[in-house]
Amino acid sequence: MSAACWIGLSVIKASGLVLALTTEENAERAQKLAEALLERHLVACISIHPVQSFYRWEGALQCSHEAQLLMKTSAQHLEALRLTVSELHSYNTPEWLCWPVTASQAYGAWAIAELSSNASPPAA
């Protein structure tokens, strides 16, 4: 059983799509991480958004401008994605959140196809 993403007491079903979220130090690092994950076919798509994060770190309140990555993947790729994000990430403790999603039939089929190693580019 994968510990990559738990919903309540059950693991996400192996056939479903999953959203995973992390933040990076800046847009440049986020883009490099996104490209590496796409090249490895661990994600079908990544959206990058600028965010301002407020949190407590080592006892002090922090405010950071970061880049948030919303990653679309499958449950089958989730653990490999988590490990790769941990390996390539600039933070020692990267944010890692994930949850199952329901997609339209067309988008879901496209996403699953993109995650295969022999995916072809989408039709124009």
**N- to C-terminal distance:** 39 Å
Can you give the helix content as a percent range?
25-40%
Query: How does the helix and strand content classify structurally?
Result: alpha+beta
What name does CATH use for the topology?
Alpha-Beta Plaits
- What do the pLDDT scores average to? 87
Number of E-state strands: 6
How big a fraction of the residues is strand?
35-45%
Task: Enumerate the strands of the largest sheet in spatial order, edge to edge or round the barrel.
Answer: 4-5-3-6
Shape: elongated
Q: Supply the number of helical segments.
A: 3
Q: Biggest β-sheet: count, sense, barrel?
A: 4 strands, antiparallel
Question: Which stretches are poorly predicted, pLDDT < 50 over at least 5 residues?
Answer: 6-12, 120-124
Q: Quickly give the CATH architecture.
A: 2-Layer Sandwich
H/E topology pattern:
EEEHEEHEH
CATH class: Alpha Beta
Q: Rg to the nearest angstrom?
A: 15 Å
Number of domains as seen in the coordinates: 1
